[in-house]
From TrEMBL, chain A:
Compartment list: Cell membrane
Domain ABC transmembrane type-1: 142-325
PANTHER family associated with the record: D,D-DIPEPTIDE TRANSPORT SYSTEM PERMEASE PROTEIN DDPC-RELATED, OLIGOPEPTIDE TRANSPORT SYSTEM PERMEASE PROTEIN APPC
Organism: Hymenobacter ginsengisoli
Family designation: Belongs to the binding-protein-dependent transport system permease family.
Name recorded for this polypeptide: ABC transmembrane type-1 domain-containing protein
Alphabetic keyword roster: Cell membrane, Membrane, Transmembrane, Transmembrane helix, Transport
UniProt xrefs under PROSITE patterns: ABC_TM1 (PS50928)
TrEMBL record, chain B:
Keyword annotations from UniProtKB, A to Z: Cell membrane, Membrane, Transmembrane, Transmembrane helix, Transport
Recorded topology in the membrane: Multi-pass membrane protein
Pfam family, any one: BPD_transp_1
Designated name of the protein: ABC transporter permease
ABC transmembrane type-1 domain location: 127-345
Length: 334, 353, 579
């Protein structure tokens, strides 16, 4: 019996996926130029939550949501926002999560030793940041840091033993992951966006901050396995620098599951955006994203057409990304 | 091993403490204080007797409330005075944080601002609903995810597998509130199929068994929502990992020994593929037990998520901090458990303490 | 599939014991609440659900008659007699009903009223809201000849003092202060007690007893003289109220509507989600669904099956959707600029779009049904041409870059509009304003935020325009709380206030002569339109859906939107309907 656990299928699906992604990118880039009867941010007060209509030339082809916004226009505006905000957020959150998780898994709590000088410098920086009294103290600390780093540079062997401390990286990363998970979302968001309205970049930062733990958890788990693999042990035995082993040998293997995982996190991110839109954080109703269209369903749950448009588009994007990821995985393997 | 475990648990306790302390301090620096929530909103015409509710008048009221809630003390041992020439001031032990810590060490988690009830009692009440639901949902979801992943990882072809895969992706795309609402509109709707209760209590004169039956039926919809919600993110990465493992060297060896595809998957690929997901699995139960607000709101369940979300919205700090402490503790415990499992599954994987 | 069968199995199990029985007088009436009352402390008055519940447990001197939307005597025999003393005090002579008793048969006396008012000023109790509301009552003078007669001395000359002085739950003195220790302290002494001074021993003892009673969760520790008692309370799920078998008002020969209590059992189901509540109504899990949102109301009315089993009511409320302008902002200091911006809101289409056209438009902060309504003023309407003209009059000039600039101002005209998120009506209004302003070249930033953040920003004056709901009532006309210059920093978010308008606002609240009051209020409404610190768009409607079998449904424009204690199932069930 021929065991075909996984064979490379005809490339049709792959090309279809690429075509959809290209279409999405095109729609996103050209959204402001398309001749649409309605703007995405305008409320059509005569048509609140109307189902799709095709009869009139300037009808709402995909219906309107409970605020009176045109779903089709919102879909295209949302495609643009997907390109400039959601996808970068997914990529950056995955990268950040992967790096944090991989470092935590690789070095654990004892593995990463830092020169004491770093601690002294960090303490000095903290001192300044908090504007603590005794303003000569940070200079002392900084001086100690410089002296220590000079000494440790000179006496490298000694420094490795005595002038360094272990950074509890694993506990730190897991602690932050737990913090982000355990604090009620509302409190977390109020803390993050307290004060003036977040700019686009700050909003991106909030999304990344809320989204990275999933990737970190996955990569940490994989890294625990990878770091005891023979090839890593061999690299260690050959005296390579730990950082180099981590970056060149361990990290690529630990990040394997991310290929399948990253497309999924796009959906989680859109759900997150939807929740934020519902709370009015980071975006008013005039900034339309797929998430905010889905959020407007909450006002009126029977308007299926509001969910259908972004839902189908999101599903297609997800499947396309998964198909591309699968093809990439095959490529990596072969 | 025992020393390692004790060290890990100690570290987890310290981390939970640190997290709760952070939330304790951060929550009190938020805009919109509890007194703003508790006092009737100013700028309202429904209380004509109040006269000109002047700012001074309101300040007096706020002060009385702050005093009653114990908020008039400084927040921490040191605080920074407001204003541009901010100076650090030392307050000694007469501060809110110290009072909280001392009470906590005596087993007193504080009292809710809104009704004066002990935080621990409120959390316990909510957990009576949340814990069984979360346990059942986590168990079902993990079981289903394993079965589905083994099924999906076998052969990429086959129409049915494609359909199941697409369905799982569709589930992942669907926001939880839509999923739960869809189920509600489908299965508890007199215009459609009306077979499951979604609100209310059991019949007043019911026997114990009838009541148990009622609650089982009542739990069906929330349970289904939760299982469907977490299923794709458990299954889909597992499928990818399984496929990856089956192409590893040992699988080829096993194949050469004449094992079937399913045997290879189950005996060799699965233990390895599950490893990276262990942390996620260990985190699943505490996450679900901490409550999924949307599901609890839709199905009118008095669970933990709703309790904490409402406390957060009302700036009920003692309850929020208590909830965070409990949730963080449970999650950190889950992580320690995951590490123990790593060790049990593969002794080489013993993580550093 | 497996769940389907599992589910239907359980459903069978359940339906076996809960076949929809015919309604009898004793069948509980299930009412939807959006949130748990959280605390049933009679002094706290913390949220609408709690106030509703407390009104079932306790009685006040005067209570709201939902049929006529006005106060009616409950514990009081009649409306109080009004006298004036000096130029700042109002004396109200009350007489309690002879028949009024506590559950143990003891009569309700003036000393109980005195004790209740004193409790509102005991430190350490959750009484801040009561204190703010009834702090104007300075003294209770008890008639030495008749323990049921007393005079409330009020520090107010407001014409409405009489009607609003009696709406607090009266609590029994005997239960909390059996030794009458508080009687020796005057109400005014307690009111003026400095926060820094430790309370008198008698006060401390009463406070301790009150706290020990844990009234927030166990209201049965302090039984009131109301018609119901709390039978059970599952937090965040259900509250069950049972009618007392022997209630004093049953013996009254002709009980007024505020002293009628028809339902034998009232069950409040806490269903936070609106869509789920609508389904529960359709499934007969609840019988009354007050405050139905517009869209859900529309869907229920559109459904043939729902129309057959439900009745629908709409009643204009006293809640006003209002836009406010920050008059302290340099760009908005000129009233013509504010007027111009106000012309860009479209109340007509917004009313149709968000409220199914069911609300009421208004010229000012008074409902058109009020006898003080200024009907000679034009209703606010969408008028972009007028807005353009007003902008130019205010000195704004449109530059080549499309921005409006005013000489002397560094920045061009741009507006930040704040409102509470999660509220679809606010969002739609914001979108409408934004697109109308965009046509004139005025950039608008919409800033929805969580409720507490928005309120904090409004109080700090960090906004240009806001949209919010101002809750009104028909009982008093006191606009000083939102427009007096002394209320800047608390209720007056707009920063509006001039000496002459302040005088007008005080005059409105104190004027007793109806004709003069009418004149003052008409002038007030004209000034609001002229100065435009706030733009009232329209009064929102209250919508109610209920099971068709239910009788005596009295819809109202006052919270909770219907008379709870009037509801009843049909009195006689025809025997044929019993199988």
């Amino acid at each position: 019996m021929k065991v075909a656990l996984f064979s490379s299928r005809p490339q049709f699906g792959y090309w279809l996926a690429l075509a959809w992604l290209a279409l999405l990118a095109g729609a996103g880039l050209l959204a402001p130029l398309l001749p649409l009867p309605y703007a995405a941010a305008n409320a059509d007060l005569q048509h609140i939550a109307t189902p799709p209509e095709w009869s009139a030339p300037s009808a709402h082809y995909l219906g309107t949501d409970s605020l009176g916004r045109d779903v089709l226009a919102g879909l295209l505006a949302g495609a643009r926002r997907l390109l400039v905000l959601s996808l970068p957020a997914v990529v950056l959150a995955t990268v950040a999560g992967a790096l944090a998780g991989a470092a935590a898994g690789f070095w654990g709590n004892r593995g990463l030793r830092l020169p004491v000088a770093v601690a002294a410098a960090a303490l000095a920086a903290l001192w300044w940041g908090l504007e603590l009294p005794l303003s000569s103290m940070p200079y002392w600390l900084l001086g100690i840091a410089i002296i220590l780093s000079l000494v440790s540079w000179r006496l490298y062997r000694l420094a490795a033993r005595w002038l360094s401390f272990a950074l509890p990286l694993d506990s730190l990363v897991l602690g932050i992951v737990t913090l982000l998970g355990a604090v009620p979302r509302l409190i977390l968001l109020l803390v993050l966006v307290a004060g003036p309205t977040p700019t686009q970049a700050q909003f991106l930062g909030v999304l990344i901050l809320l989204a990275w733990p999933d990737a970190a958890r996955l990569v940490r788990g994989q890294m625990l396995r990878v770091r005891v693999q023979p090839f890593v042990e061999a690299a260690r035995a050959s005296g390579l620098h730990a950082g180099r082993i981590w970056w060149r040998h361990a990290l690529p293997h630990a990040c394997r599951p991310l290929l399948a995982f990253a497309p999924l996190s796009l959906a989680s991110l859109i759900a997150l955006e939807s929740a934020l839109a519902f709370l009015g954080i980071g975006q008013g109703p005039d900034i339309v994203s797929w998430g905010s269209i889905l959020a407007s369903m909450r006002q009126d749950p029977t308007t299926w057409w509001v969910a259908a448009g972004p839902g189908v588009a999101l599903l297609a994007t997800l499947l396309a990304l998964q198909a591309v990821a699968k093809a990439r995985q095959l490529e990596v393997n072969n | 091993m025992l020393r390692w475990l004790i060290a890990r648990l100690g570290r987890a306790a310290a981390a939970a403490w640190l997290i709760a302390s952070l939330v304790f301090i951060a929550s009190r620096l938020l805009p919109g204080s509890p007194e703003q929530q508790a006092l009737a909103e100013a700028g309202d015409l429904s209380r004509p007797a109040a006269g000109v509710l002047s700012a001074a008048n309101q300040a007096q009221n706020r002060l009385a409330l702050r005093r009653r809630l114990g908020l008039e003390l400084p927040l921490f041992y040191v605080t920074r005075s407001p204003g541009p020439p901010g100076r650090w001031q030392w307050h000694g032990t007469a501060n809110q944080y110290h009072a909280w810590v001392v009470a906590l060490l005596h087993g007193d988690w504080g009292h809710s601002y809104r009704d004066g009830q002990p935080v621990l009692a409120l959390l316990r009440q909510a957990l009576v609903y949340s814990l069984p639901l979360a346990g059942a949902a986590a168990g079902l979801a993990v079981g289903l995810a394993l079965a589905l992943a083994l099924y999906l990882a076998q052969e990429p072809g086959g129409l049915l597998r494609q359909v199941v895969f697409t369905l799982l992706s569709a589930l992942q795309v669907m926001p939880l509130f839509l999923l739960a609402l869809g189920l509600l509109l489908l299965l508890a709707n007199p215009d459609f199929i009306n077979i499951l209760p979604a609100a209310g209590q059991g019949p007043a004169d019911a026997t114990r068994w009838q009541l148990a039956g009622y609650w089982a039926a009542r739990a069906a919809l929330p349970l289904l929502s939760l299982v469907l919600a977490v299923l794709p993110e458990l299954t889909l990465p597992l499928v990818a990992l399984l496929r990856y493992e089956t192409r590893a060297g040992y699988a080829t060896t096993a194949r050469a020994k004449g094992l079937t595809a399913m045997q290879i998957l189950r005996r060799h690929a699965l233990p390895n593929a599950v490893l990276p997901l262990l942390t996620t699995l260990a985190d699943l139960l505490p996450t679900l037990a901490a409550g999924v607000v949307v599901v609890e709101v839709l199905f009118a369940l008095p669970g933990n998520g709703r309790l904490l979300a409402e406390a957060a919205a009302a700036h009920d700090y003692p309850l929020v901090v208590g909830g965070v402490l409990l949730t963080a503790g449970a999650r950190l415990l889950g992580l320690v458990l995951a590490d123990v499992l790593y060790f049990l599954l593969d002794p080489r994987l013993r993580p550093a303490a | 599939m497996r769940y389907y069968w599992l589910g239907s199995l359980f459903a069978l199990l359940v339906s076996a014991c809960s076949t929809p029985a015919a309604k009898q007088a004793s069948t509980p009436i299930h009412i939807r609440w959006a949130r748990d009352p959280e605390t049933l402390d009679p002094l706290a008055l913390s949220n609408p659900s709690a106030i509703d519940a407390i009104n079932l447990l306790h009685l006040a001197l005067l209570q709201v008659d939902f049929q006529h939307n006005k106060y009616a005597p409950a514990l009081a025999q009649d409306f109080p007699g009004v006298r004036y003393e000096g130029d700042s005090l109002t004396l109200l002579d009350y007489q309690l009903r002879e028949a009024a008793t506590w559950d143990n048969g003891e009569p309700v006396l003036a000393t109980d009223v005195d004790f209740t008012l004193k409790l509102m000023h005991c430190p350490g109790l959750p009484n801040e809201n009561s204190r703010a509301q009834y702090g104007f009552i300075r003294q209770v003078r008890i008639d030495p000849a008749n323990p049921r007669r007393f005079t409330l001395v009020c520090r107010s000359r407001s014409a409405e003092t009489a009607s609003i002085s009696g709406d607090f739950p009266v609590l029994p003195e005997a239960a909390l202060d059996p030794a009458h220790t508080l009687r020796s302290l005057l109400l005014a002494t307690l009111q003026d007690w400095p926060l820094s001074r430790s309370p008198a021993p008698a006060v401390a003892a009463v406070v301790r007893r009150y706290q020990q009673a844990n009234l927030a969760r166990q209201p049965h520790n302090l039984p009131g003289c109301g018609p119901y008692r709390l039978a059970s309370w599952q937090t965040n799920q259900e509250l069950h109220f049972q009618r007392k078998a022997h209630w004093w008002a049953d013996k009254l020969p002709a009980a007024p509507i505020v002293l009628q209590a028809r339902p034998q059992e009232l069950v409040f189901s806490v269903l936070p989600d609106d869509a789920a509540a609508a389904l529960a109504l359709r499934r007969h899990d609840i019988d009354v669904y007050p405050q139905v949102p517009a869209r859900i109301f529309q869907q229920l009315q559109a459904s043939q099956a729902a129309r057959q089993e439900l009745v629908f009511y709409t009643h204009s409320s006293y809640d006003i959707l209002t836009v406010g302008f920050n008059t302290r902002r340099a760009a908005l200091r000129d009233r013509r600029t504010r007027q111009a911006l106000s012309r860009l809101f479209d109340p007509v289409r917004l009313l149709a779009a968000t409220q199914l056209g069911q609300g009421t438009r208004t010229v000012g902060l008074l409902p058109p049904s009020s006898s003080f309504y200024n009907d000679s003023l034009p209703l606010p309407a969408y008028a972009p041409a007028e807005a353009l003209a007003l902008l130019q009059q205010a000195g704004w000039q449109r530059g080549a870059d499309g921005h409006w600039r005013q000489p002397g101002l560094a920045t061009p005209l741009a507006v930040v509009l704040r409102y509470r998120a999660e509220e679809a009506t606010f969002a739609t209004t914001g979108l409408q304003f934004k697109s109308a302003a965009a046509q004139l070249g005025i950039p608008v930033t919409l800033l929805p935020a969580e409720g507490s953040v928005t309120t904090a920003a409004l109080q700090a004056g960090d906004f240009d325009l806001y949209i919010r709901l101002i809750k009104g009532s028909p009982f008093g006309l006191n606009f000083a709380t939102i427009l007096h210059s002394e209320a800047i920093g608390s209720g007056n978010f707009t920063g509006f206030g001039r000496p002459d308008t302040d005088r007008l606002l005080v005059a409105i609240s104190t004027e007793g002569n109806l004709a003069r009051k009418r004149q003052l209020l008409r002038r007030f409404q004209a000034i609001i339109q002229e100065e435009m610190p706030v733009l009232p768009l329209f009064f929102l409607p209250y919508r109610l859906a209920a099971t068709r079998q239910l009788q005596h449904i009295v819809p109202s424009g006052l919270k909770p939107g219907y008379a709870m204690t009037a509801l009843a199932w049909p009195a006689a069930v025809p025997p044929a309907s019993h199988p």
